[in-house]
Each structure stands twice: as structure tokens, then as C-alpha cells.
């Protein structure tokens, strides 16, 4: 250690799950330890930080079942800084890259959740600049990049991450979250207290953090999943905030002052495209292949989720090309036999072409009911549809077959225009730039291929009526299917207003929506689902479409390269010619990975559980819901209107969350405090 540093900082203190130094030296020829995990930190004056940190880490045990460590330092005449880490070993079980990790000087301490996919390239750059390494981990690459570039180090990382680095000399903590928000960074900041964690339940275990929540945020998200829970820095819990995608935070640990800034924002750069369509397709293909290549880096088994859709199929086909025909590669598919939602025949097309192994699971209503309490507890917030339970089942299937790392196709729909509803914005964009010839040629065919994509006359007529009229009529007659009709009039009107889009400066209407949905609205919520469902089963999920290089290209292209020629995700479809089986590449019907949720309501047991939940005093006495309208809706379901099960799902999951997460978090915290005392 530097002599000047040794005078400036106190000795390191570490509590570990197993004996050993903070960082041990080993040959760089050894295999690297990289890990998905849970992270936590506490800065406070007074209190029992070691015990409190243990509680935080215990509550996140599923994120890192392979060990847990703590590091602590008391600032002279100031608070204590405690960092914690739960470990899921991906490469080996050695202690060389245990976290919290110190750099070679001992000045900087890191706790890190995620993967830096380009760590090998960054390591080589850092070595050429004079950096010294004692491990082969991407964790140490973060430390050395921070030492060289300071807060700007995040711009060098291609990965998913949430981390905190404590500077023992300056007494500052630097924190950052990846550009897309794949990994969570939740925190509570008060005048003499600061804490962060990967999960809500860990923060709620602290005495300073109240479990008070904003039910209106939950309802907003129930009506429109892209608002309310993940788009803002403020979370649904009054005392808990989050770093938004692409944000960083620095806090002075002596006086608790902090600042937050955005280090990455999507931008529209027309100079990226030189006018040749084939060049844009070729560049996207090259970037996507490289994104998959980086995310295949691992010394444990890597496989893929395979729904049979365009996105996951493209990843599997690219992975097969990169790994070679003889490399073992396992895929995992959710199936729904005998229903319209089953896409196994498309997954079979990919399996036949690539020769990958495949395992299937059927997420059923009965299984959902049986696993509901644990599912809600580990998801931490209400989930929008049964799709999230299907995802849960696929990750559990992978765990049963010993596949730790899974590639998945999340992120493509939002970035590349995968939802037919984007066609109204596509038409608006063509109109705005004056591309009338293309618009005249395509608009009739858009309506033929995607008949529900754009507003129809009857829908426009209905929506032209004042909302207050429609709301009053639905409640008077017990009709309607929108969740808005089951809300009090003021709450419904406010939810509707807050769902309106705002155009991003410098973007056309289509690219604005894609950027907003990818980096601030809908996708951020889907990424939370993926994080919680994968971590619930101690799996690591990697998303090749969530590579900022793809976004920098796609968001700068003209609308017709994204959704022209009557093709959703045209950029992906054209770039995958010769790679994807043609029946997959030319699938025009969009179907998400979703169980036949409405058919679940044919189950008398499911209907009984939902009715019991919506009969609770919590629901009936809420100022937000109109219980009489929901009673009518449940009666209509009982009479066979199964499609209304989609509407009933939202209040059912919110009330289930109150029972199985909020009440359980309070109970478990009390039990842990009792054990600790």
C-alpha cells in the first residue's frame, strides 16, 4: 500500500462466510470467478450495522447461495460504512475474487452485481496503461477502470450491473446502474442514514425504512405497466428510491450529501446511416452476433430460453453458429398444449435447424395457485400478467437441469418496433417527414396484416365520448372491461392522463416511443421481472438485445428500416436472412410468451381465490377501487366471460402483494430482529 494511503485509512475489517483474506493473490492463468449476486450497503451513525447487514443478506440468500461477506470501516468522528455481498459463483468456488473486493492498493472497495461482458478487452487496455491485477475477474476490472477514469468508467462498460465503490481516502461512495436497468439499485437516503440493496425486502429490514407504500402507483401500473413502478426514481415505497437506467450516484459519507446524474441517454443520430438499406442490415447483424458472442463468455453451462418467437430463436441460431455444431447447448421452453398460446411447433423448427437440446415445462393454473405466496414474495412487486409466472417456471426448469446462465430475447420488441401498436407512430413519422409515397403504398397493407394496430372508426367514436360518461355508464350497468371502470372516477381519470406519451426532443414519433419504452418505461418493468424470476432460482439471465450499441444504431435509423415493408422488427428480420428458419423469420403474427390466462379462470378454484381476495377489507375499504363494479365483473366471469380474467388479474395481484409481500416482509423483519436480540 502507498505510504500516504496507509496513514490516511484505517485497517480493513471483513466478516466472511469462510476464513480468508479480503483478496488473495493467484496466477492469472487460473479461471476467473464472475458472479451474479445481491449487494447491500449501510452508512449510518450508531446502530448495529453488522447484524443489520446480516439480515439484509439473509433476506437475499436466493440471489447468492454460495456465500456472503461483509466489509466495514468507521470514519473518524463520523458514521460507519458497511458493504455486503451475496455470491452466486459462476466460474469456480475459490476465494480469490470474493466480494466486497479491494483494489491492489486497498483504497477502493467494491460490491458488484452483474456482468461486464467486455471485461477481457478492458483488462487488456488497463494493463497497457499500467494497471496491476491479482484476479481474472470482471469485478477487479471495474475497480481498475474506476481508478483510471473515475466516475466516467461506466461509459466503458458493456454489461448489466449495479455496483458501489467506496473510496477510503475521500470517504465517498460511487454507485451506478447499467444503461437499461437490467440490475436493480434501490436505496434509502435520510439526513444521517443511507442504505442500498438489490431488493426491497433487504431495505425494509432496516428500522429507518418504512413499509408505507403508494397504492396509486400500483394501480397506475395495473392499468399501464409502463408507468408507476419502474419509470421513476421514486418507487412505490415512500422511503425507497432507485437509480433509473443509466444513472449514477455519489455520496459524501461524512455528511450524507449526494448527487445523482444520468451518464447515458439514448439519442437520435441520423449520421449513423449512409442511405443503403443493406448496410444498415449488415451492421445490425454484425453487432447482434458480437453481442451474443460476448454473452456466451462463461466457464459454466450456458443455455437459452426458447419460446419459438423471432427474438429467442435468433439468439439460439447465432449461438449455434458461434459455438459450432458439436457444442452442447440446452434450451428451455414453456408450452401450453391444446391452446392458442402454444408455440412449441415454432420452437421445434429452431431445434431441428440447430440440433440444440430442449426441455419443456407447462406453467399451469394449479401450479400458479400452489406457488403464489413464494412467487409474490420473490417478485417483490405485483406482476402484470401470467407471463411472469411462465418465465418463473422456465428458470426453475433450467435450475433442475443444472444450467446456470441463460440467454434470452428480452428487449427486442421495444427497441425494434415489435408491437403492432407502434404502427400508428410509424404512420405519424412518415407523415411528419413527408414520405407520402411510401405511406400511400403501405397503409392499406398495414391494416390488412395488422388489423388491430391502428384505431378503427368504432374505437375512435367510443373514445371521443367524455371518459366521465363512459365511466358512469359502466358503473351504472355493471359493464365494460377496462380496469379504469373499477376505479373511483378521479383515480381513473388521473391514471388515464398519466399514461399519455411525451415526445422526446430530437426524435421522430416512432423512435421517441422506442427509446422511451426501452430506457424509461415498459422494458424497465420487464427487466425487473426477469431479474427477480431468474434470481429466485439462482440463475443468471443475459440479454443480447440489451446492448447499447444496438440501440445507438436502431434509434438513429429512419422509420422504414424499422417497420417498413409491412414488417414489425424489419431490421432484425432482414439481418437474420440465412440464419433463422424462414417460417420463424416471416412470422407476422405477434404473440408474447404468455399462458392462456383467461382460460385459467375456468378453474373454480382460481375464481374462488380471486373472489376471496377481492372480498377482503383491504380491497372493499380502499378509496381507489369501486368494489361493486368488481363484484359485477366477477359474476360475469362466473357466467363464462373468461376474457374478463385479464381485468380481474390486476387488483388480484395487488391485493396478493399486500398479503404475501408487505405483510410477510414486516413479519420476517420482526422475526429476524427477535433472533438478533
UniProtKB/TrEMBL annotation:
State the Pfam families in the record. Answer: Asn_synthase (PF00733), GATase_7 (PF13537)
Pathway(s): Amino-acid biosynthesis; L-asparagine biosynthesis; L-asparagine from L-aspartate (L-Gln route): step 1/1
Task: Report which reactions are catalysed by this protein.
Answer: L-aspartate + L-glutamine + ATP + H2O = L-asparagine + L-glutamate + AMP + diphosphate + H(+)
PROSITE patterns for this protein: GATASE_TYPE_2 (PS51278)
Residue ranges constituting the Glutamine amidotransferase type-2 domain according to the UniProt record: 37-254
Q: Which organism is it from?
A: Methylosinus sporium
Q: Which GO terms describe its molecular function?
A: asparagine synthase (glutamine-hydrolyzing) activity; ATP binding
Species classification: Bacteria, Pseudomonadati, Pseudomonadota, Alphaproteobacteria, Hyphomicrobiales
Question: Which EC number(s) are documented for this chain?
Answer: 6.3.5.4
* Gene3D superfamilies xref list: Glutamine Phosphoribosylpyrophosphate, subunit 1, domain 1, HUPs
Provide the residue positions that the database annotates as binding L-glutamine: 138
Q: Which UniProt keywords apply?
A: Amino-acid biosynthesis, Asparagine biosynthesis, ATP-binding, Glutamine amidotransferase, Nucleotide-binding
Q: Which InterPro entries match?
A: Asn_synth_AEB, Asn_synthase, ASN_synthetase/amidase, AsnB_N, GATase_2_dom, Ntn_hydrolases_N, Rossmann-like_a/b/a_fold
Q: What is this protein called?
A: asparagine synthase (glutamine-hydrolyzing)
Q: Which residues form the active site?
A: 37
* Family from the record: Belongs to the asparagine synthetase family.
Query: What enzyme category does the UniProt record give?
Result: ligase
Tell me a GO biological process for this protein.
asparagine biosynthetic process
